[in-house]
Amino acid sequence: MQICSLCPDGCLCYNKFMNNLSLSHRNDILQYAAETYGAVPEYLWASTPDAAVLRHTDNRKWYALIMSVQKDRLGLSGTEPIDILNIKCDPILGSSLRTERGFLPGYHMNHEKWLTILLDGTVKPEKIYPLLEMSFELTKSAGKKKTVRSKKKPEEEREER
């Protein structure tokens, strides 16, 4: 199907537009993570040099993974690559979101606790960023728990037991 008259062998403009849109989402998310969380993406695997891991600096836990995957590996039709964002998600919310377009079980992750978001424009950025925030919160260090001291005298506590 030819959409424009500039591309002689079918419309290449649409594919270029979609690739740039995906790249833009990837870059926007990485920039947001850098500005919001001080994140520096890590590229851990030679076999997937575009896979960017975002993790906490203190506990080293991942809160996001951006990578390019062939569509058929996600159960989608086609073999062309698509950018995805994996985030940790509340299991109940994740189950609900997986019923919507653009949300899938976590690719190569625990399907109950991780969610894959397609970065092809199907999911709007204003829906992605709060989910990234949730993932950051779910994976951060618990911190030191406060000990609540009883106001009762030790003798009174012993009497209650």
**SS summary, helix count:** 4
Distance between the termini: 79 Å
Total beta-strand segments = 5
Largest sheet: 5 strands, antiparallel
Whole-angstrom Rg: 22 Å
The geometry reads as globular
Strand portion? 15-25%
CATH class: Alpha Beta
Q: Write the element-wise H/E pattern from the N-terminal end onward.
A: HEEEHEEHH
CATH topology: Aspartate Aminotransferase, domain 1
Question: Percent of residues in helical segments?
Answer: 25-40%
Mean pLDDT: 78
Please give the domain count.
1
SS-based structural class? Answer: alpha+beta
- Low-confidence segments, given as residue ranges, are 1-22, 144-154
Query: Taking strands numbered 1, 2, ... along the chain, how are they ordered across the largest sheet?
Result: 1-2-3-5-4
Query: Which architecture name does CATH use?
Result: Alpha-Beta Complex
Question: Would you mind describing this structure in some detail?
Answer:
It is a single chain. The protein is an alpha+beta fold. Helix content is 34%, strand content 18%. The chain contains four helices and five strands; from the N terminus they run H-E-E-E-H-E-E-H-H. Strands 1-2-3-5-4 form a five-stranded antiparallel β-sheet.
In short:
With 161 residues, the protein is α+β, with helices and mostly antiparallel strands. 34% of the residues lie in helices and 18% in strands. A 5-stranded antiparallel beta sheet has the order 1-2-3-5-4.
